[in-house]
UniProtKB/TrEMBL annotation:
One of its GO terms (cellular component) is cytoplasm. It is found in: Cytoplasm. Belongs to the SdhE FAD assembly factor family. This is FAD assembly factor SdhE. Its main location: cytoplasm. It comes from Nitrosomonas nitrosa. It comes from the Bacteria. Keywords: Chaperone, Cytoplasm.
Length: 77
């Protein structure tokens, strides 16, 4: 399975808002993301739904500063 297909599958979440946001993000930025950014996106996708949603909505901060640029992109969706 290609990396993009795997990422699209992993964007399907239990939380509808998160599901829609992640799908839109991939539609908009998929072709622009380099390998390192795709790996960071996979790291974000490994987080539980509530934690990921809280980070994206700025209710919680991530301790991984390398994820900040990607989170900022997600927040613009």
């Amino acid at each position: 399975m290609k990396q993009q297909e795997r990422l699209r599958w992993r964007c399907r979440r239990g939380m509808l808002e998160l599901d829609l946001l992640l799908q839109r993000f991939l539609e908009q930025y998929d072709a622009q993301l380099d390998e390192a950014q795709l790996k960071m996106f996979e790291t974000l996708l490994s987080l539980p739904d509530n934690e990921l949603w809280d980070i994206i909505t700025s209710k919680k901060e991530t301790t991984n500063e390398h994820l900040q640029p990607l989170i900022k992109l997600l927040q613009q969706i």
